[in-house]
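Standup notes
- HV: blocked on the assembly model, inputs below
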Amino acid sequence: MDRRQQKTRTAIYDALTKLLRKRRFEDITVQEIIDEANIGRSTFYSHFETKDQLLEQMCDEMFSHVFSESLMPEKSHDFSANHEELKALLEHILWHIKDHEDNISSIMHGESEKLFTRYFSGYLEDAFGDMISHIDIDVSSEFKKQFVIGSFINTVKWWIGNGLTQSPGEIIDAYFKCLVRK
Amino acid sequence: MDRRQQKTRTAIYDALTKLLRKRRFEDITVQEIIDEANIGRSTFYSHFETKDQLLEQMCDEMFSHVFSESLMPEKSHDFSANHEELKALLEHILWHIKDHEDNISSIMHGESEKLFTRYFSGYLEDAFGDMISHIDIDVSSEFKKQFVIGSFINTVKWWIGNGLTQSPGEIIDAYFKCLVRK
DNA sequence: CACTTCCTGAACATCGTGTTCGGTAAAATG
DNA sequence: CATTTTACCGAACACGATGTTCAGGAAGTG
């Protein structure tokens, strides 16, 4: 790919990231992004059709980094071993989130938060998949799924909202303590 | 208050409610609301400064209905009695939500969903208050609060998103089964 | 019947969006 | 190198939504 394209692309990403630290996405103007990135107006529109598309592509890229590097565990037939692997996997994801703290925190306001939830939720359905079926509670599996995944995402959002104060390990421990109640 | 004011006010509310059934709040135009309400442009702006203010006031009114009629239980010193009262209170709220199904469902998209969460969360902090301190898990009380309230709101959102298929009683039962794991 | 308050709607200024296009600079090609 | 292709630039433009203003008409009040 042309170097020039790369340059403007990252200039735009960097500009948006910087602006997102100060205000919500919906309050940021295309012109501001253009000025911050120091590019021409038509250049912006030759790269992205709209401001929303920019956000989506930027998130796509970021989340694929966060999640793709977190490989799914091999599924053994031993449930408790699986359970430990799941905890390790989730903790691993939290570490990745911590790595991208700067970008993720700024995205977690306004409309863009929903993108996060959607991505995360899709990913977790796979991760939690058969763990959920092993939970022995007398409620529909749909409800179980909603409860387990929803409360996990919530917890992560809460963690991010508080500036990632605790360590990933602490969060995972606390979450499973609340969920499993051994 | 002047009857005319009342009329235009409810005309505006009704118009917005109707439009919200079809698209998200952020995609609705002031002019559309005006046309749907069949009022003059300047009339709208003499009642509300902006579109957002309209939404906020409308939600204020609705949520105060939903929650104000749900009185807090008297706090006894018997925890398990308190617990039953809490379940009854929560079920009561869900019934109120069901009553306002039409309005609430349309509000639960886009930015307005956050208003719901904020209101609900504030209300639940009171409701769950001392119940949370009685849960014996070795995690910080902040975390407990986040987990309990967050997962409840999630559940309710999920319920609403699915068209309030189950009965309030079923939802409360399922929620407490997952939470308490007796 | 006065008198006050509210509604009306056209006209206007303002702002953000997205497009167009002739010109310039920088890569790629051979 | 010389040539061709490609990306960037930015001013100008059309468009649509927002919010304000104001003079005149309609509806409540006493």
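- HV (later): unblocked. Residues 2-4, 29-31, 41-42, 45, 49-51 of chain A lie near DNA strand C (CB under 10 Å from a C1'). Chain A touches chain B at residues 26, 110-111, 137-140, 143-144, 146-147, 150-151, 154-155, 158, 173-175, 177-178, 180-181 (CB under 8 Å).
- Next: hand off to the docking folks.
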